[in-house]
From TrEMBL:
InterPro entries: TPR-like_helical_dom_sf (IPR011990), TPR_rpt (IPR019734). SMART domains: TPR (SM00028). The lineage of its organism: Bacteria, Bacillati, Actinomycetota, Actinomycetes, Kitasatosporales. It comes from Streptomyces olivoverticillatus. This is Tetratricopeptide (TPR) repeat protein.
């Protein structure tokens, strides 16, 4: 189950155009007739049906698309209501900006804006993902030194890097909603320095890298909060900034986080395309933990696609890359959470998706017992999600008592977490347990957590 759709994109479209449902329906009906589709009723109840789940007739959709200058092919390809997102031009333009310093600054300025509340939609098609990855790979870093404005030295870049490290840990401590606002504010500050300051090429690259990391963090927090379209907008802006900053490792990390979003939302092949693009440039990736993360994301995508051989090969590659990574203190500060235990948690999730619950439980156990264990205290949301999956594994093996016991721990872990991912995972677990409601422990659990 994906994040809950709280606001239909058609509502967002009306809000942006400052119009009413009645007035909008009249415009659609007029266009419907002009296009030769005949008369269309435009009572207000029709709008209510459209946003509550009833799909408009195709000719009505084509009239709406024509009204907003959207290619009819997009209506057929994306389906209702996803194609409506193309009518919201702020999201469309970020994909079309040139991969230059000027285009990157404009993308960062757009990413520094607040979110439009369109939950549950992924706006980038597979073709757009492929083109974006190709642009990232092909972008040649240009000179970024700036001569006008107040002089900014390496010290300012270092301060931004320190603040971003704090923000990453704040996400763990206070949740994605609060950390998102802080990351966007930090991005605005960095972008302001980039556009108004004077700095050397070396300092400029560090500033672009800092902007990329702020954008990547904002994208991750947006995803965790269920704002998928906004997450993708920020991930692509982060990729641009990483390319301009000549930081292939940061770009690869961004692709890995983006891949997580794609396979979690039912697009494992889109995720694989992003990971494979990053791994094409593995010789430029300086972090062993980023490489391990990429292989782990690859494994998860293969497991979601039902490809066990490829998934387990990627898990082996993730463990091998991690073993070569060296001590945590010698790796990127942003990869503090990537442990040997984390790879076991991913391996467990893969096994569960592939219908091997016993193998999953073995990896879940190893994740906490390894000398380099999964850090459940730092990764509270992740720990809750993995506990919910562990409960699913017990349930698949028919051990209802163990499933309920672990589910109670998952609820406790995620109870105060502000996370659409966590909420969705718990909803899935409750749905699976509901099939066993006749068992007293399950009934008690479902009643207590209703």
């Amino acid at each position: 189950m994906g994040p809950v759709l709280e606001r239909h994109p058609l509502r967002s479209l009306l809000a942006r155009e400052h119009t009413t449902a009645a007035a909008y329906l009249k415009r659609v009906a007029d266009r419907h007739q002009v296009l030769g589709y005949g008369q269309m009723a435009h009572r207000k109840e029709k709008f209510s049906r459209w946003i509550s789940g009833t799909e408009p007739e195709l000719t009505a959709q084509l009239a709406m698309a024509d009204l907003h200058g959207i290619d009819p092919e997009e209506v057929h390809r994306r389906g209702w209501p996803d194609w409506l997102l193309l009518a919201l031009c702020d999201d469309r333009s970020v994909w079309e900006l040139p991969w230059t310093v000027a285009g990157t600054v404009e993308a960062l300025e757009q990413a520094g804006g607040g979110p439009v509340d369109r939950r549950g939609f992924v706006i980038a098609s597979l073709g757009t993902l492929a083109v974006t990855g190709a642009h990232w790979a092909a972008t040649t870093p240009a000179a970024v030194a700036a001569m006008g404005g107040r002089r900014v030295g390496a010290g300012a870049a270092e301060l931004f890097e320190t603040r971003l490290d704090t923000l990453r840990h704040l996400d763990d401590a206070v949740g994605s909603a609060h950390a998102y606002q802080a990351a966007v504010a930090e991005l605005r500050l960095i972008t302001g320095v980039l556009t108004t300051g004077s700095y050397t090429d070396a300092t400029g690259r560090r500033l672009y890298a800092a902007a990329a990391e702020a954008c990547r963090l904002a994208g991750w927090c947006a995803y965790d909060s269920g704002h998928l379209a906004d997450a993708e907008k920020r991930f692509t802006a982060a990729l641009r900034a990483a390319a301009i900053g000549d930081d292939a490792t940061l770009g690869a990390s961004t692709l890995a986080f983006w891949a997580n979003l794609r396979y979690s939302c039912g697009d494992p092949y889109g995720a694989l395309g992003l990971v494979e693009r990053a791994l094409d440039h593995r010789h430029k990736i300086t972090s062993g933990r980023v490489l391990a993360m990429l292989h782990a994301r690859q494994a998860r995508a293969h497991s979601k696609a039902g490809e066990p051989a490829a998934a387990y090969r990627a898990i082996d590659a993730a463990f091998a890359a991690y073993d070569r990574a060296g001590p945590t203190e010698h790796d990127l500060p942003s990869m503090y959470w990537m442990t040997h235990g984390e790879v076991h948690e991913v391996a467990a999730s893969c096994a569960l998706s592939l219908g091997e619950p016993q193998r999953a439980l073995e990896h879940f156990d190893a994740a906490l017992r390894h000398e380099d264990p999964y850090d459940a205290h730092t990764e509270a949301r992740g720990a809750g999600i993995y506990l919910a999956r562990q409960a699913e594994a017990h349930l698949a093996l028919g051990d209802i008592d163990a499933a309920v016991a672990v589910a109670e721990r998952a609820i406790e872990q995620l109870g105060g977490a502000d996370s659409a991912r966590g909420t969705s995972t718990l909803a899935d677990l409750r749905g699976q347990l509901a099939a066993h409601r006749k068992a007293r422990p399950v009934a008690d659990f479902l009643d207590l957590t209703a």
